[in-house]
Amino acid sequence: MNPRKEATYRMLSLIAAVIFVLPCVFLVFPTFDINPDDLWQMDSLMEFICAYKNTAILAIVGVLIQIVIALPAGYAIARIPSPKAQTFFLLTCVFFLLLPQQALMLPQYLVLMNIGWLDSLKGLLIMTAFQPWMILLFWFAAKRIDSSLFDSAICDGASNWVLFRKIYAPIVRPYVMIAAFLSIAESWNLLEQPMTFLQSKEKYPLSMILMQLSTDNAELKNVLCLLFAIPLMILFGTMVKKIIDT
């Protein structure tokens, strides 16, 4: 590449990075002006801690459920011998992916109300268990695996479980880590579903507590938002390192 063009690209990349990071800088700087006593004496501190726990439960348990469902589903669709059947299942996933979440709120609310899971974290988890984008991601990962690996293992007498556990799961591990991070980030910022399905304040996730937090202390708001974002920042850095090392 021409040195002048390369320098231009680097400059533009640097400017874009600064523009992206600038809001985060404005979020962090005011936190240095806060008195630590204001944070620990906050009336809603226990609510904040409880909401942090609820958010962690939704994120960790939710991603485990989603991967347990999506990982074998993507593998099963990729291994369907009939192209028409495979296309049908893929289009079904695409349809649910494009379906507005708001259109599903009322049916989901009625289902949870009828089974008695309306004001509970388990109801929220079950309604976010099916993630079409995750199934499509794992299907794509499975299709990128050379079919000769499966054929050789089948000739050696390997069962479908062995194919899944010994070939498919290890190869798609980077995709699983990417899907896990995206799922956790989505659950961490979940807002519409908790607003619809939860009524008890002690079951609110952190996103709802921050939304309803009424305080005139701007520095305190910045601290709480920073505490809200730090776990995702750490997780992102960890995931990127593991994916690069894989």
Automatic annotation (TrEMBL):
<dbReference type="InterPro" id="IPR000515">
    <property type="entry name" value="MetI-like"/>
</dbReference>
<keyword id="KW-1003">Cell membrane</keyword>
<feature type="transmembrane region" description="Helical">
    <location>
        <begin position="88"/>
        <end position="111"/>
    </location>
</feature>
<dbReference type="Pfam" id="PF00528">
    <property type="entry name" value="BPD_transp_1"/>
</dbReference>
<keyword id="KW-0472">Membrane</keyword>
<feature type="transmembrane region" description="Helical">
    <location>
        <begin position="220"/>
        <end position="240"/>
    </location>
</feature>
<keyword id="KW-0812">Transmembrane</keyword>
<protein>
    <submittedName>
        <fullName>ABC transporter permease subunit</fullName>
    </submittedName>
</protein>
<dbReference type="InterPro" id="IPR035906">
    <property type="entry name" value="MetI-like_sf"/>
</dbReference>
<feature type="transmembrane region" description="Helical">
    <location>
        <begin position="123"/>
        <end position="142"/>
    </location>
</feature>
<keyword id="KW-0813">Transport</keyword>
<feature type="transmembrane region" description="Helical">
    <location>
        <begin position="52"/>
        <end position="76"/>
    </location>
</feature>
<feature type="domain" description="ABC transmembrane type-1">
    <location>
        <begin position="52"/>
        <end position="245"/>
    </location>
</feature>
<feature type="transmembrane region" description="Helical">
    <location>
        <begin position="12"/>
        <end position="32"/>
    </location>
</feature>
<comment type="similarity">
    <text>Belongs to the binding-protein-dependent transport system permease family.</text>
</comment>
<keyword id="KW-1133">Transmembrane helix</keyword>
